[in-house]
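queue> holo job accepted (magnesium ion)
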Amino acid sequence: MHNDISEIVLSKTDIQDITKRLGRQITEDYTGKTPIFVGLLKGSVMFMADLIKDVDTHLEIDFMDVSSYIGRKSSGEVQILKDLSSSVDGRHVIIVEDIIETGTTLNSIVDLIAYRNAASLEIVTLLDKPVNRKLHVDVKYVGTEIPDGFVVGYGLDFDEKYRNLPYIGLLKPEFYE
Ligand code: IMP
Ligand code: MG
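queue> job finished
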């Protein structure tokens, strides 16, 4: 599995530094508000688990599963595979995403959560890959920006594989082309 990676983009300690920094910022911004962290399955699970441990205020978690990707390329459409189990009406929502590429996924979720009357909505993403952005999204909390290239690990997959790598790595093109 490790041999399929050409370069480590974020090591375990890089990721820890990021969750600590973002956790501190979110703690400052949300103390007293009991936000709901909405993790987008499945890629954000590891990030969500580590991030919330670095947030020092009451919070709740929930998950949504939306799909726009088949293999490597975005189909440009978003489908809800699993919806939230709690109501976001009047609540402060923080969407937790693994990576933003075209912005398609987040754009439709932002509209949906706003339509459901959330009191506020912000996005936290571990990775931002702006090179292929098609739709603008306001992202308040960004782990780090990365250049083009397909990354896997720490929750991120290629065809459901590599999610269990403990770091984020660049997948050698011969494995996804
Ligand atoms: P967007 O709708 O194009 O912004 O796509 C975001 C989603 O695409 C992410 O939540 C990932 O599931 C997937 N994705 C985009 N780039 C990568 C990548 O480099 N590796 C793994 N998944 C990716
Ligand atoms: Mg995703």
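queue> Helices lie at 12-30, 45-53, 104-115.
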